[in-house]
Design a protein that fits this description.
Layout (H helix, E strand, L loop, with lengths): L6 H26 L2 H13 L6 H13 L3 H10 L5 H13 L3 H13 L9 H11 L2 H13 L6 H13 L3 H9 L6 H13 L3 H13 L6 H13 L3 H10 L5 H13 L3 H14 L6 H14 L2 H14 L4 H16 L3 H10 L5 H13 L3 H13 L6 H7 L5 H14 L5 H13 L3 H10 L5 H13 L3 H13 L6 H14 L2 H14 L6 H13 L3 H9 L7 H14 L2 H14 L4 H13 L3 H13 L16
Helix pairs in contact: 1-2, 1-3, 2-3, 3-4, 3-5, 4-5, 5-6, 5-7, 6-7, 7-8, 7-9, 8-9, 9-10, 9-11, 10-11, 11-12, 11-13, 12-13, 13-14, 13-15, 14-15, 15-16, 15-17, 16-17, 17-18, 17-19, 18-19, 19-20, 19-21, 20-21, 21-22, 21-23, 23-25, 25-26, 25-27, 26-27, 27-28, 27-29, 28-29, 29-30, ...
Length: 634
């Protein structure tokens, strides 16, 4: 019996074949990221009436997502009556890529409500979202879903969990995931090592590297770069350099990490040498991070010529305004530190005015140059243009504000932001202290929910500035009891407070305890504080004896403190002794000549006063003009 095939069956067969071929074309477009061709296939799907096929629609969504064209992908997704897990995964990727982290989590919740079972491709995207938001609570809940839906054995998911917990400051949970993994790859080890480093457990990171090698797993370039970063953060630049030498083909991250390590340790000349070596070898071109890092070292060294060379080099390798968009902030501040304000303004004009970093760098440049009005004017201009300030903006502009403007900014940020970051609170303490409102400064300090070492230093420095030495000493004790470890700035501030308050015995006792009990190596600033402490109290001979016993050669700050005290106590003998050293160390500083000349004049030794003045004039120096900080009120 002949078997007849109906016209409908023939039509269905043709549709199936067409659907199959269109699906193959879509897959090829997706693999090659061919958006134009994918759109042509999309037109054919519509033309043949196959746009209601959920399988083809899902494939189309994937193409648009892969080609970073999210509009059509979202539209097609909304048209699907029952999206499957593949469609949901693609849309989650869209929100993740566009930074819509809250929407991404909301979409996942909706997916779960609709009964779609998540798989091992969904969870890494969600965990990435939690990492970006530093949302440990949400991340922990998603970890629970990972276990519930049997994705806990997935290598990719476990690596994402390690990354999420590490970035959410929960390194112990990250380690528990790492220990419990059935298998680990190099990424697993790198993620755990990086997690230790990001959370400050540098020794643990180095121990893990040793364990990795013992287990026969060869570290890759990412591993070595991560370990270099660990050594750099520990200030062990030579160890980082040894790791660098072990890398057969260092990439730009390797070079930048090494340069940054030396720059962070204050070894800016070495940082510049490494940069020049990189350029000389010619295998790797610097990127914006490298150039910004090197420009920062140029700024610290006031190496204008080197900074200008890097400026020219950057324009050569980055066309258009790309160089200014990426390294403009570092370039601008370099020029400002070198007192080249017009060059800084020129860079500012080339930068993107919609970016808050542009304004922050210009405000910082004006602040460094003492151009306080220009700094506050640019802050106002920034607001008028609708650029939203950040915590860096506020922390930069507050130190240059007068009390009235500072109070206005304080009220504004409190109104706009319920929870201010520590950085802004610290800037407010500093502003009120410098404006003479030490009570207001302490009121802010006492209400802070969390304090860092800068908070304590700002308050201690404020007390010292106003002569409240005993309050500064008391705050130092409270700081130690709070668990915050004082740093070099803390001790300098307390010693300065003792000096300005006449607490000689207390200051000397603190200095002695630092060197005797805490194995602390004093800085030049701290030696200068002790000299100032003794000299201000009139114990000039003790100050000179202290200088002679210093383990390092005294610089201008030491002899300057002694000379200033000699002017107060009208001591000609030690004044002349201090001035002789200053004339040798700072031959071009007219202030030292003027101070000694005034000491002689007040003692009636006019010949000596004239001699010093002629010595100053013979070296081509002039007395600096006086400046008044008094502003006429209308």
């Amino acid at each position: 019996m002949r078997k007849w095939v109906s016209q409908r069956q023939i039509s269905t067969l043709a549709e199936t074949r067409l659907s199959y071929h269109l699906n193959r074309l879509l897959q090829n477009c997706s693999n090659s990221r061919a958006l134009k061709q994918g759109k042509q296939v999309h037109q054919q799907i519509i033309l043949h009436g196959l746009d209601s096929d959920p399988y083809l629609t899902t494939k189309l969504i994937q193409i648009y997502v892969d080609c970073d064209d999210s509009g059509p992908a979202l539209h097609l997704f909304d048209e699907l009556p029952q999206p499957n897990v593949f469609a949901w995964t693609a849309i989650l990727a869209v929100h993740l890529r566009n930074g819509n982290y809250k929407e991404c989590l909301q979409m996942y919740r909706e997916m779960r409500v609709q009964g779609v079972r998540p798989d091992m491709y969904v969870f890494p995207k969600l965990l990435k979202v939690c990492s970006q938001l530093s949302d440990l609570e949400e991340g922990t809940q998603i970890h629970g879903d990972v276990i519930r839906f049997g994705a806990g054995s997935s290598l990719h998911v476990c690596n994402s969990l390690i990354d999420m917990y590490s970035k959410c400051r929960s390194v112990n949970e990250a380690r528990q995931v790492f220990i419990g993994m059935v298998e680990r790859d190099v990424l697993s080890w790198n993620s755990m090592i990086s997690g230790y480093i990001c959370n400050g457990f540098l020794d643990s990171a180095l121990e893990l590297l040793s364990l990795m090698e013992l287990e026969g797993l060869e570290p890759d370039l990412i591993t070595w770069n991560t370990i270099m970063d660990a050594y750099s953060r520990m200030g062990l630049c030579e160890a980082a350099s040894e790791i660098f030498d072990r890398i057969a083909e260092p990439n730009i991250i390797s070079w930048t990490t090494l340069i940054l390590g030396y720059s962070r340790s204050g070894k800016h000349e070495k940082a510049l040498c490494i940069f020049r070596d990189m350029i000389r070898r010619g295998f790797v071109l610097p990127d914006s991070d490298t150039l910004s890092c090197v420009l920062s070292s140029c700024r610290q060294l006031a190496a204008l010529r080197s900074g200008q060379e890097i400026h020219g080099y950057g324009l050569k390798i980055r066309t258009g305004l790309g160089f200014y968009d990426s390294a403009g902030a570092a370039l601008l501040t370099m020029y400002a530190w070198c007192k080249r304000i017009q060059d800084a303004r020129n860079v500012f004009e080339m930068m993107d005015k919609r970016d808050v970093i542009t304004w922050n760098s210009m405000i910082l440049g004006f602040s460094h140059l003492g151009m306080h009005n220009s700094a506050t004017e640019h802050f106002s201009d920034m607001q008028m243009r609708g650029v939203r300030y950040d915590q860096i903006t506020i922390a930069t502009v507050l130190p240059v504000c007068d009390l009235k403007t500072g109070k206005q900014i304080h009220a504004h940020v409190i109104k706009k932001h319920f929870n201010l970051p520590i950085l802004v609170w610290n800037a407010l303490i500093n502003m009120y202290a410098k404006s003479g409102c030490i009570g207001a400064a302490y009121a802010i300090f006492s209400k802070m929910g969390a304090r860092d070492v800068v908070s304590w230093n700002a308050m201690i420095g404020g007390y010292g500035m106003h002569g409240h030495g005993r309050a500064a000493l008391q705050l130092l004790q409270e700081m130690k009891q709070s668990g915050i470890r004082p740093n070099s700035v803390t001790y300098t501030s307390v010693l300065s407070a003792c000096s300005h308050s006449g607490l000689v015995d207390e200051g000397l006792q603190l200095f002695d305890s630092l060197t005797r009990d805490f194995n602390f190596t004093p800085s030049m600033e701290q030696f200068a504080c002790v000299v100032d402490l003794l000299a201000r109290a009139g114990r000039l001979q003790d100050a000179v004896d202290f200088i002679n016993k210093m383990p390092i050669d005294p610089d201008g700050s030491i002899w300057g403190a002694l000379l200033a005290a000699c002017r107060i106590h009208q001591n000609i003998q030690f004044g002349g002794f201090a001035a002789e050293h200053l004339f040798r160390l700072e031959p071009d500083n007219p202030g030292n000549y003027v101070t000694l000349s005034n000491i002689y004049a007040r003692a009636g030794r006019w010949d000596d006063a004239v001699r010093v003045r002629k010595l100053m004039e013979g070296r081509g120096l002039i007395k600096p003009s006086g400046y008044s900080w008094i502003k006429n009120e209308k």
